[in-house]
Specification:
The complex is a heterotrimer of chains A (386), B (593) and C (154).
Chain A: H1 18-27, H2 30-40, H3 52-61, E1 68-73, H4 82-105, E2 109-114, H5 122-139, E3 144-149, H6 159-166, E4 190-194, H7 195-207, H8 209-212, E5 223-230, E6 236-241, H9 246-253, E7 258-263, E8 269-272, E9 291-296, H10 301-315, H11 321-339, H12 346-360, H13 364-379, H14 381-385
Parallel strand pairs in A: 1-2, 1-4, 2-3, 5-9
Antiparallel strand pairs in A: 5-6, 7-8, 7-9
Helix pairs in contact in A: 1-4, 2-3, 2-4, 4-5, 4-7, 10-11, 10-13, 11-12, 11-13, 12-13
Chain B: E1 2-6, E2 9-13, H1 19-25, E3 49-52, E4 59-60, E5 71-73, H2 77-92, H3 108-116, E6 141-143, H4 153-161, E7 168-170, E8 177-179, H5 196-200, E9 206-208, H6 212-220, E10 225-230, H7 251-261, E11 265-268, H8 269-293, E12 303-304, H9 309-318, H10 332-348, E13 355-361, H11 365-371, E14 385-388, H12 389-398, H13 420-423, H14 430-444, E15 464-470, E16 485-492, H15 494-505, E17 513-517, H16 535-550, H17 561-571, H18 577-583
Parallel strand pairs in B: 1-5, 10-11, 10-13, 12-17, 13-14, 16-17
Antiparallel strand pairs in B: 1-2, 3-4, 3-5, 6-9, 7-8, 15-16
Chain C: H1 7-15, H2 22-33, H3 38-48, H4 52-61, E1 73-78, H5 81-85, H6 88-99, E2 112-117, E3 129-131, E4 134-136, H7 141-153
Parallel strand pairs in C: 1-2
Antiparallel strand pairs in C: 1-3, 3-4
Helix pairs in contact in C: 1-2, 2-3, 3-4, 6-7
Classes of the chains: A alpha/beta (386), B alpha/beta (593), C alpha+beta (154).
Chain lengths: 386, 593, 154
């Protein structure tokens, strides 16, 4: 187990000369940019962790003249708030990542899909965007970014649901294949990347992949912005090198009484105290889009689970059976067990159901509901029953 | 070509084929629910999940295109467990009061439950958690959300086949459901009552409003004289609900069965179809004369046919400015109804208040049409009850009739005689062909210049068809049409009707006469026809219709002796005063939602 | 209820009449009037040449595109886990007390609607609420009273 310990890093919010890095990228070929990103080992920072370089490579390979770069700023995972902070403090670096991606993939058009809850950020973001457009056009880029707003739907963070929403429809995930790199927004090849991923890409071009790979582990290169909340004396945004154990994380952020950490939000995994020491935060252990929630011993894990299930039952798009009905069954099921109206063995049936949801749901939402369910029920069974 | 393995059998299929279709080729049946051959792929219900070796999750066979070297297992333990769960989940949100349900034994969910979920249910009942109410507002169908499994077949039907979208998916998560505009009653929205959704609903969530019991009551009431008419498309589809393959003509057996059910007189909508041709053909020629010769624009061209009540409601909602373009002729059903309680009553010397007029239709919109307040020109409700083809099959089964062994018989004579022109009303293009057979002959004194009277350019399943007929050798009265080219168009399925209507409203096309049928394939694909439906099934029914036409002694409406007689004895002449009173109607502008 | 007037036409001019114009148009109507009336949805359907049921179906998918009448100020209290842990219930009952309405209701003067909502992205400053577009965080029953009173004065 590669363990890097807990190290604070300052890449994402680091103040850099955006014009300089944009000029550097403008002078690189498409292949050179993509190679840097591939070499960096960067994986998507939204949570799913798809290698960013590959996504860019696939999109670049498409012959279609019209392609899109989409920035996924529909940050909705409970416990995640880092993208808001990045947009608030480093918007020009987000724009830079998109323009750079556009250069790499031969796209002239970018869209930022911003969740409706962050609408208050818009005036400032527009001011920065105006400045940015002016700057890159001076360098010679032919690239333009527009904002599209969400209106309160967690599922629109799923890439194909996000496209549906921009196209004016209900945010219902599409069947895949085709994948976005082939047929995404408006059925054109599309590279859709998380806010933080785009900024990281800018920093990789700025500093070079060779420098970047020094951070993190083999499976989880680089650093990551964490959104830390719950029972912690210092909630907030922290950029940390990947590769620490949950124990190291708890040592830094816990309140001395941490009994569980929910890594990756409601769709992530619950790590109980007994697993803190041997669980790495990263793709080799528990992956996360940044959400880290700490629970101390005063918290009822039944309430936590119930809250998550209630969230999913409301935020499922509702189109596919396992997710729409499964979420309702899990919610109602734990309520019945808690009230003593169903036998505790019913939890075993529900875990099996969660497994079915994992393999049979149409998109990542339904597929990941089981993560939290299984990890909470298996580790805190008594709290669910009694 | 792509080579893959399904259940260890190798199969080669064209690129782009779905795993579902590839499996079908091997004779491997993968269960489906949201999938329907007439509709785009949804991949929602997940009943068709199969295992692909090496894949992280199961895949939906209906939505997954094949790829080289794929190794698929359709019946592995993992698949069976997931499928059982999915069926159980659907059952948990479905009010499974099967023995009370109209779709009992015809429900696709029930069939799956039979295969995957007998015994105790695993999951909790969710129906009680939702405030469901049955929408009974339409006279044509019921919408019972407590039986809805959210497969969205109805929504796709309403959008893709009918361009109506009276219903759409609303809300999300546990509240997701199928809604009309802001959940208004179906009778107060743009719904055309076409019943195409009813035809494709896998469960009892959308069913025709049935009047079987009321019809039995009328039959048992010795005080009543119950007449029944049967639409042309019923005779080529009824068999499907009684164990025959699609495309079997069962006209004679159906007539016998209706008699055995106890109807006092078994008559034919084809008779009034012929009468419609006389009225509508005359109306067309009058419009042509007024507009083209007399420059009198009080009448509009092109003229649209008006036999299809789904189409009527569609144009009333969507293109109210074009209502003057609709023929004022009532549909054959309503002409029949108006005459049954006037002409027929007089001839048979029966008090019209004692007549109960029943029609057997391939259509659910006919139930709505019969309920329109305009449809009372006899002084009574012209048509009392409309039953679908499916409902007739139910009655035949209820009566214990062994349909296969029945001897075919003929319709009764008064309003029971028809021609091949009346029969082909049941297929798209049929009204046009029937009208042309008659109008051409009126104008030129000669039969239409097509082999065997078969006007093939107006036939077939193309969504929009066009034809031009050059009129030559006119008789004196119609000399002004000499050398003219009559331009006609035919559309079926409201999505195609909309294309034509839009083109007409924008002045982009220059037709004289347009036939529109609301349903795919025309009435033979109607919302009241046996379930299931598909392009192949509709093709078989169409072939049966044209075969029925070829078997008729008379094939032109104006040669129908009963039609000639009714003008002589009762109506006087086409578009005459009495016709206008009984056989013509008017239309209403409706809201856009 | 409000009168839609020419608003929908103006928005269609601004955003276009393609399907992708639907969300921006609905969002702008809501920005101005806080919710979508049936008339507004029918007007949008007409402008975009799509069915009204489609407009309703799309709007009802999105939590912030309300299709029921709402007050001038919509208060959305985050109910997701951290805010729940950090006193969301106290915030809700405080607001209920001062506005004399329950969650889901609108004040008789149509000034406030009180709703609960899913995670709004302020977990590190829980409990948090949105009033219209503006977030208010690190709330206590005392501070939330000040916030609401501020809107009452506006």
């Amino acid at each position: 187990m590669e363990n890097k310990g807990l190290t604070k890093v300052d890449l994402i919010f680091e103040s850099i000369d955006v014009r300089k890095v944009m000029t550097k990228a403008f002078e690189m070929t498409s292949d050179e940019i993509i190679k840097e990103i591939l070499d960096s080992g960067l994986k998507g920072r939204g949570g799913a962790g798809f290698p960013t370089g590959l996504k860019w490579k696939y999109t670049a390979a498409e012959k279609e003249p019209e392609k899109y770069i989409v920035c996924n700023a529909d940050e909705g995972e409970p416990g995640t708030f880092k993208d808001r902070e990045i947009l608030d403090r480093a918007a020009s670096k987000v724009y830079a990542g998109m323009a750079m991606a556009g250069k790499a993939m031969g796209s002239k058009k970018g869209f930022i899909y911003l969740r409706g809850e962050y609408r208050f950020l818009l005036p400032q973001l527009f001011v920065e965007l105006h400045k940015f457009h002016k700057m890159i056009h001076e360098i010679g880029y032919d690239f333009n970014i527009e904002y599209r707003m969400g209106s309160g739907a967690y599922i629109c963070g799923e890439e194909s649901a996000l496209f549906e929403s921009i196209e004016g429809f209900r945010g219902e995930p599409r069947n895949k294949p085709p994948y976005p790199t082939v047929s995404g927004l408006f059925s054109k090849p599309t590279s859709i990347n998380n806010v933080e991923t785009l900024v990281t890409a800018v920093m990789i071009i700025d500093k070079g992949a060779k420098e970047y790979v020094k951070l993190g582990t083999k499976d989880s290169r680089g650093s990551k912005v964490f959104s830390i909340s719950g029972d912690t004396p210092i909630p907030g945004i922290f950029e940390l090198e990947l590769g620490m154990t949950v124990q190291e994380f708890v040592n830094e952020f816990g309140d001395g009484d941490t009994k569980a950490v929910q890594v990756g939000g409601a769709s992530g995994f619950c790590v109980p105290r007994k697993r803190f020491a041997d669980t790495i935060i990263g793709f080799e252990g528990v992956p996360t889009g940044g959400s880290m929630k700490l629970f101390n011993s005063s918290r009822s894990m039944y309430n936590v689970l119930h809250n998550y299930l209630d969230f999913f039952a409301e935020e499922s798009c509702g189109q596919c059976t396992p997710c729409r009905v499964g979420c309702q069954q899990l919610l109602k099921g734990v309520e019945k067990v808690k009230k003593g109206e169903a036998k505790s063995t019913y939890l075993t049936e529900l875990v099996k159901l969660a497994d079915t949801m994992k393999v049979a749901s149409k998109c990542g939402l339904g597929q990941s509901v089981g993560n939290a369910f299984r990890s909470i029920v298996e580790n805190f069974r008594e709290e669910i029953i009694y | 070509m792509v080579t893959l393995k399904i259940n260890d059998q190798e199969v080669k299929v064209a690129a782009g084929t779905t795993v579902l279709d590839a499996a079908k080729k091997l004779g491997v049946n993968i269960p489906t629910l949201c999938n329907h051959p007439d509709l785009c792929v949804a991949g929602n219900c997940r009943v068709c999940v199969v295992e692909q070796t090496g894949a992280r999750t199961l895949i939906a066979a209906c939505a997954m295109p094949v790829s080289e070297g794929m190794d698929i297992h359709t019946n592995s333990l993992k698949v069976r467990n997931a499928r059982k769960h999915i069926v159980e989940l659907l059952l948990s949100e479905h009010r499974a009061d099967c023995t009370k349900c109209y779709k009992n034994q015809k429900c696709e969910l029930q069939t799956l439950a039979n295969e995957y979920s007998f015994g105790e249910h695993i999951f909790l009942d969710l129906v009680e958690d939702h405030p469901y109410a049955i929408d009974r507002s339409s006279p044509a169908f019921l919408k019972d959300d407590s039986k809805c499994i959210r497969c969205q077949r109805c929504v796709r039907t309403c959008a893709q086949l009918q361009h109506v979208s009276a219903i759409a998916v609303s809300h999300k998560g546990s509240h997701m459901k199928i809604s009309s505009f802001h959940d208004r009653p179906m009778s107060h929205v743009v719904c055309t009552n076409c019943g195409q959704c009813v035809n494709r609903c896998p469960t009892g969530a959308l069913t025709e409003k049935t009047y079987i019991d009321q019809v039995w009551d009328a039959i048992y009431d010795t005080d009543k004289h119950v007449v029944v008419q049967t639409a042309p498309a019923v005779r080529v589809a009824l068999g499907e609900d009684l164990g025959y393959d699609p495309g079997e003509r069962v006209t004679g057996k159906m007539v016998t069965a209706l008699r055995q059910l106890g109807f006092d007189s078994v008559l034919d909508t084809d008779f009034t179809a012929d009468l419609t041709i006389m009225e509508e053909g005359t109306e067309l020629l009058t419009r042509l004369k007024k507009v083209l010769v007399e420059n009198d624009h009080s009448m509009a061209l092109p003229m649209f046919t008006s036999c299809s009540p789904g189409w009527i409601k569609f144009i009333e909602h969507k293109y109210p400015k074009m209502l003057p373009n609709l023929s004022t002729c009532k549909s054959p059903q309503q002409m029949f109804g108006a005459l049954a309680k006037t002409f027929y009553a007089q001839k048979r010397n029966i008090d019209p208040s004692k007549i109960v007029s029943v029609s057997i239709m391939p259509c659910t919109a006919k139930k709505y049409e019969a309920d329109r307040p305009e449809m009372r020109s006899s002084g009574y409700k012209d048509i009392d009850f409309v039953l679908t083809t499916r409902e007739l099959a139910v009655m035949i089964k209820q009566a214990g009739i062994d349909f296969r062994t029945l001897e075919p018989t003929h319709y009764d004579s008064l309003m029971g005689t028809s021609t091949g022109a009346g029969v082909i009303f049941g297929a798209t293009g049929g009204v046009m062909e029937a009208a042309l057979r008659t109008a051409y002959e009126i104008v030129t004194g000669k039969p239409v210049p097509f082999n065997n009277l078969n006007i093939t350019p107006v036939r077939g399943m193309d969504g929009v068809k066009e034809a031009t007929i050059k009129i030559e050798g006119t008789v004196d009265e119609w000399k002004f049409l000499e050398g003219a080219e009559l331009k006609v168009a035919i559309a079926h399925g409201l999505v195609n009707a909309n294309k034509v209507a839009k083109a007409v409203s924008k002045g982009k096309v220059n037709y004289h006469f347009i036939e529109i049928m609301a349903c795919p394939g025309g009435c033979l694909g109607g919302g009241g026809q046996p379930i299931p439906t598909s392009a192949e099934i509709r093709q078989k029914r169409m072939e049966a219709i044209y075969s029925e036409d070829m078997h008729m002694d008379l094939r032109k409406s104006h040669e129908n002796p009963e039609v000639l007689a009714i003008y002589k004895e009762f109506l006087e002449k086409p578009n005459g005063h009495k016709s206008h009173e009984l056989l013509h109607t008017h239309y209403i502008e409706r809201e856009s939602y | 209820m409000y009168h839609t007037g020419n608003l929908v036409k103006e928005l269609a001019e601004k955003h276009g009449r393609k399907r992708e114009s639907l969300m921006p148009i609905l969002q702008d109507i809501v920005k101005k009037h806080n919710y979508l009336t049936d008339d507004a949805m029918v007007a949008v359907a007409t402008e975009l040449d799509i069915s009204a049921a489609e407009v309703y179906g799309t709007a009802s998918f999105y939590t912030f595109l309300d299709t029921e009448e709402r007050g001038k100020n919509i208060i959305r209290v985050c109910k997701t886990i951290t805010c729940s842990m950090k006193g969301k219930n106290d915030i809700v009952s405080t607001i209920e007390d001062i506005l004399k309405i329950k969650v889901g209701e609108t004040t008789p003067d149509k000034m406030f609607t009180l709703l609960e909502t899913n995670c709004i992205g302020w977990c590190h400053k829980a409990p948090a609420i949105l009033i219209n577009d503006m977030p208010y965080t690190d709330l206590t029953p005392e501070t939330v009273i000040d916030v609401i009173k501020g809107y009452m004065r506006k």
